[in-house]
Structure formats: C-alpha cells, structure tokens
Design a protein that fits this description.
about 325 residues; 7-stranded mixed beta sheet; 11 helices; about 30% helix; binds NADP nicotinamide-adenine-dinucleotide phosphate
C-alpha cells in the first residue's frame, strides 16, 4: 500500500510518499480502506516537529480519517465489512476521564495515523459514521468535531438559548458553529476577514467581530450580550486571546482552553477568573462515547461539516501548506481513490 511518512527528520520536505506491506487485521482488529483524511493544526505541528520533538520516525501522520471496513480479524463483533467508519483520536479512550495510558494511544503520533491507503485498528478504536455524510465530511469528525462537542456539550453542558463565543473560522470553530445551530445556541464569532464573517453569518452566526479591526473585541462581545457576556468561550487562540476571552465571558461562565494559535505562554490578570468565578476547562479532544453521542446528533439533524477543499492523496503536502497559510474556512481534506 501507499502511505505518506515523516521519514528521516521533521519538516514538510521530509513528508514522503512510501510503500509499506498491506496491513492485515489481527485478532480483534479491523482493516480500513481509507477514503478521506482531514487535517488538523496538530498534524501540521507534528510534521514540523513542534508538537512532539521526541516523536519516533518514520511516522504516518494525521489523526483523522474515514473509510470502509474491508476485512475483520478473529472475534470482531462491533463492525462488519462494508461499514463506514472513522478511527477515534485516542484509540484506548472509550469513556470517562483521560489518563496517561489512554492518551498514549493517539493516532498520527505517537501511533501511526490515517494518511495511508490501508489502516488496521482495534475494533474498539473505530466508530460507525452518520450515513448521510460523504467520506470527506466524515473525516472531519474525530478531532475537530469531537473537540467542539466536548467543549459545548460534554464539559460545557450548554443548552438551547445559551450563547457561545467562537474564535476564527478554522476547523474546530466552524464545526462548533454548526453544532451550535444544532443545539439551539446563539453563536458569536471572530475572524480576521469580513468575507469569512459573512460566510459564518450564512451558517447561523448572529454576532460577527473582526478581531483585526477590533483587537479589544471583548467590548463588542459585551455589547452583543447586553453587557452580560457569553456563557462559554471556545478558546482556540490561547495566550494572545485569553484575556479578551475572560473579559467576554459572563460571571460563572466557562472558558474552554483548546488551542494556541496565538501563543502558548499566557500572562493573565487572575482577578478576571476569581472575581467572576469563571471556570477554565482544558479540553483534549474527547472519548469515543462523546464521539458516538455527537454522531447521533449529526445524523438526527443531517448536519454536514464544512469542507474548504479536498486535495488528492498524491498532493498531500499541498494540504499542509494550505493549513499553514490559514486561508481556509472550515476543514481541509485529502481524498483517496
Ligand atoms: N485541545 C484539543 O483537543 C484540540 C483539538 C483540536 C484543535 N486544537 C487546537 O485548536 C486550535 C485550532 O485548531 P484548528 O484545527 O481549528 O486550526 P485551523 O483550522 O488551522 O484554524 C485556523 C484559523 O484560526 C483563526 N485564528 C488564528 N489566529 C487567531 C486569533 N488570534 N484569534 C482568533 N482566531 C485566530 C484564523 O481564522 P480567521 O482566518 O477567520 O481569522 C485561522 O484561519 C489549534 O491551536 C489546535 O492545535 C486543540
């Protein structure tokens, strides 16, 4: 089979097309013919050696992929050949709290990921995808989708009528915007681009803020919420956005710490946390149980994740370059025949 590998060193120039023997499903494993992969910012950092500089190479990158079960090993009962599945982000995190052992099982580093024609995974590490989704749409779910679901539902416990603030129009934020519609939430969103804000409005965002034009955007969030602030912030910016998020959230509200697009080391006025009794909730994707709950909601509502574009398997490095350029809206995918 053909696969992409980060081979002898980090950096996009070391992402090479390679041949490996076809994997065979061992007892309890399923063999998946991968039909689409979606990119996450983490995959780019992994290729660049910035996510885990100690990652052993060669590595097949990318945590998120969808495909068809083409064979099953002895004893497999959860899926059958012909089923359409995704691998779950942390292969051994089925439910409950994360722990070191569970988090050692993430695809696309430290374990080989989905950017290959065939992948063998334990039957416990896959979920059947909502039937209405294309391969590309399904491939957006394991990391970006589950992360957004964990923030809004598993940890956020938001309910219809609540207000959420989303940052930027990348993969996590746009799926969160779509899930917000499905959950009956009011969504405010920031972006560096008025054109992207207009697209977000068409997806249901009701408060639009250009963070380039308004670097102190918490004032606009307060205006849009009658001074109260939002119930929850999906914080993907990190260090560069956290203070504005803390000024945007309501008393007793939640800031879900997810990403570091705008830096990792923050200096924060802590009074904004304790004087408002704000809950800071770290999010690390989520477990299979959350993935399955999200899939039920997506199927029920016929939701279709937004794909910015799909790059052919042979041109996979171009997809990473697109992600680095940040011009996308929603998800970048890689399609396999
Ligand atoms: N903890 C977890 O479980 C988890 C899971 C998934 C992702 N993440 C992290 O979450 C972040 C987002 O991931 P992603 O895959 O959605 O990335 P992405 O698709 O690459 O998001 C890129 C977009 O983020 C927006 N952005 C960049 N800087 C910003 C800023 N200062 N303020 C507001 N928006 C900004 C830009 O939107 P505009 O072009 O509209 O300005 C940009 O296009 C990354 O740091 C990623 O590592 C964490």
């Amino acid at each position: 089979m053909r696969t992409w590998e980060i081979q002898s060193g980090f950096g996009l120039a070391n992402l090479r097309l390679a041949e490996r023997p076809d994997p065979r499903p061992g007892p309890g494993q399923v063999l998946i013919r991968v039909r689409a992969v979606s990119l996450n910012y983490r995959d780019l950092l992994m290729v660049e050696g910035k996510y885990n500089p100690k990652q052993k190479l060669p590595l097949i990158p990318c945590s998120d992929g969808a495909g068809e079960v083409v064979a099953i090993g002895e004893g497999v009962t959860r899926v059958r050949p012909g089923d359409r599945v995704c691998g779950i982000f942390a292969q051994r995190w089925i439910a409950g709290e994360p722990d070191r052992e569970r988090l050692r099982s993430t695809l696309g580093g430290p374990l080989d990921g989905m950017l290959a024609e065939l992948v063998a995974l334990p039957e416990e590490g896959v979920v059947v995808v909502p039937p209405h989704l294309t391969w590309e749409e399904a491939a957006t779910l394991p990391c970006a989708g589950v992360t957004a679901w964990s923030a809004l539902v598993t940890h956020g416990r938001l309910t219809a009528g609540d207000t959420v603030l989303l940052q930027g129009t990348g993969g996590v934020s746009i799926i969160a915007l779509q899930l917000a519609q499905l959950l009956g939430l009011r969504a405010l969103i920031t972006s560096s681009s008025d054109e992207k804000l207009e697209r977000a409005r068409q997806l249901g965002a009701s408060g639009l803020i250009n963070y380039r034009q308004k670097p102190e955007w918490s004032g606009a969030v307060r205006d849009l919420t009658g001074g109260a602030g939002v119930d929850l912030v999906v914080e993907v910016g990190g260090a560069g956005t956290l203070e504005q998020s803390l000024r945007s959230v309501r008393m007793g509200g939640t800031v879900c710490l997810i990403g570091n697009l705008a830096g990792l080391m923050a200096q924060v006025p802590l009074a904004l946390v304790f004087m408002q009794q704000v809950r800071l909730q770290g999010i690390l994707v989520g477990h299979r149980e959350g993935f399955e709950a999200m899939n039920r909601a997506i199927a029920q509502h016929g939701m279709r994740p937004v794909i910015d574009r799909t790059v052919p398997f042979e041109d996979a490095p171009a997809a990473f370059e697109l992600m680095a350029a940040s011009g996308h809206f929603g998800k970048i995918c890689i399609g396999l025949p």
